[in-house]
Amino acid sequence: MRRYDNFSDHDFELFIADLLGAERGRRYEAFARGADGGVDLRARAQGSYGSHVVQCKHYLRSPFSSLLAAARREAAKLQVLDPQPVTYTFVTSQALTPRGKARIAGALKPWIHDDSQVLGAHDLELLLHRHPNVERRQVKLWLTGGTQLAALLKAGTITRSQTLLEEIARAMPRYVQGRVFSEARNQLRAEHVLVIAGVPGIGKTTLARVLLADAAMDGYEAIEVSKDICRAPGSDRTLD
Questions:
Q1: CB atoms near residue 73 (< 10 Å)
Q2: Is residue 98 helix, strand or coil?
Q3: In this model, does residue 85 exceed pLDDT 80?
């Protein structure tokens, strides 16, 4: 099962917006960090004054009792929410039992009238199987263990030292995925070469390593060249 260790609370919200958007064919709005009034994600309902509302709880290492208490606090917020949600979905990174789902659904009645409106880690797993492109866009997700990249590593697709791989994993919680990654990736795919330059401390090395791992997902063989570029094979399937 996928792991969400590298996600911050805000990362998790953006991931869920992407995943549910792909599943439901809606564009979910996400908001700045801070008091949310019971709304983490929102999609406008067609022909209605209200919205489809999603609440995300990244309670990965918390006990179920804390998650249930959080759901009850959300119910208090929903009572005063105006306009009221057209639909409401509660999503958590925790793995839930059927009884756990039922208890959360009960805490959020009448906004949740069916346990299927409560999504846990196993539900997210199934959705990711249906929407692999979402996982592909979430760098912090596929650079953790148990994903396709991990399988590629075991198969020897990425021929780098274990030390370097561990450095990439350690760097991921500090990596902020944004426009720079997308622009760099597009440039690399179009021109097959990319020079990353800038003052020290802005994340050049981290970006290079994320791009390297990303390319491996497309079947490229990663070759680390530290000093002499002539040592790199001349294959068009090699990224330096």
A1: 11
A2: helix
A3: yes
> Is CATH 3.40.1350 the classification given to domain 9-134?
yes
Q: Where in the chain is the domain with CATH 3.40.1350?
A: 9-134
Q: Look at residues 55, 60, 62, 56 and name the one whose alpha carbon lies nearest to residue 94.
A: 60
Q: Work out the burial of residue 19: count CB atoms within 10 Å of its CB; fewer than 13 is exposed, 13-18 middle, 19 or more buried.
A: buried
Q: Residue written as tokens 């990362």?
A: 11
Q: Of 174, 166, 160, whose CA–CA distance to 207 is shortest?
A: 174
pLDDT tens for 195-218 read: 988 888 887 887 888 887 777 667
CA distances from 43 to 24, 37, 50, 56, 75 (A): 10, 15, 9, 14, 19
Q: Which long-range contacts (CB under 8 A, 24 or more apart) does 68-75 make?
A: 68/100, 68/103, 68/104, 68/107, 71/104, 71/107, 71/108, 72/107, 74/38, 74/108, 75/107, 75/108, 75/111
Contact 54, 89 (CB under 8 A): yes
Q: Tell me the pLDDT band of 220, cut-offs 50, 70 and 90.
A: low
